[in-house]
Amino acid sequence: MAAQIDRRDFLRSLGVGTGLTLGAAVGSIPLIGMANAQAPKGNIPSTPYKIGHMTFFTGPAAVLGEPMYKGQMLAAEEINATGGLLGKRKIEVLKADEAAGVDGNVKELRRLKLQEKIDFFCGITSSGNTPALGPGRRGARRS
User: Fold this and answer.
1) ∠52-56-138 over CA atoms, to 5°?
2) Across the strands, what pairs with 52?
3) Using CB atoms within 10 A of its CB, is residue 7 exposed (0-12), middle (13-18) or buried (19+)?
4) Whole-angstrom distance, CA of residue 110 vs CA of residue 104
5) Which of 56, 57, 128, 43 is nearest to 88 (CA)?
6) Domain boundaries of the chain, sorted by first residue
7) Contact (CB, 8 A) for 46 and 54
């Protein structure tokens, strides 16, 4: 007759077998070194890298917009403290209030791009404002 195994013995043997299997698997993973940035090629502009950040700074939705903006500012400050992008370009964040409405947001985005000459645009909390500002709608609304 086969020997009886109780639940505790079964789970104990299962745990030991799993531990040995995982230990062997971890031991077979090659260690990979830290990735290092490559030296930049070409000329790096000395002008700041301008980011246009549009989100809610006023009204009830400011509870969503303020933390998003503060997070971006924290990241920009950390990058700037190490010399900026590629060690040369400081990040400058320009903010705009999304609470202006769709037409106001289109005007503000146009101003940020044409007058402030932003390199990157982000933010936008409301899905009601997104279609008018997306890349497929460029020039769709004339103000």
Assistant:
1) 50
2) 94, 121
3) exposed
4) 10
5) 43
6) 53-137
7) no
- Tens of pLDDT, residue by residue over 11-56, are 676 666 666 666 665 665 666 666 676 776 788 888 999 999 999 9
SS3 76: helix
Place of tokens 């060690």: 87
Residue indicated by tokens 């403290």? 81
Query: Average pLDDT, stretch 91-109?
Result: 92
Q: Is the pLDDT of residue 118 over 80?
A: yes
Locus of tokens 């890349």: 135
Q: Is the pLDDT of residue 113 over 80?
A: yes
Single pTM value for the model: 0.65
Q: Which amino acid is at 5?
A: I
Give residue 75's region: left, alpha or beta (phi > 0; psi -120 to 50): alpha
Helix spans in the chain (H)? 7-27, 62-81, 102-114, 130-133
- Asked whether the beta carbons of 118 and 50 are under 8 A apart, the reply is yes
| Phi, psi angles (nearest 5°) of residue 88 | -135, -35
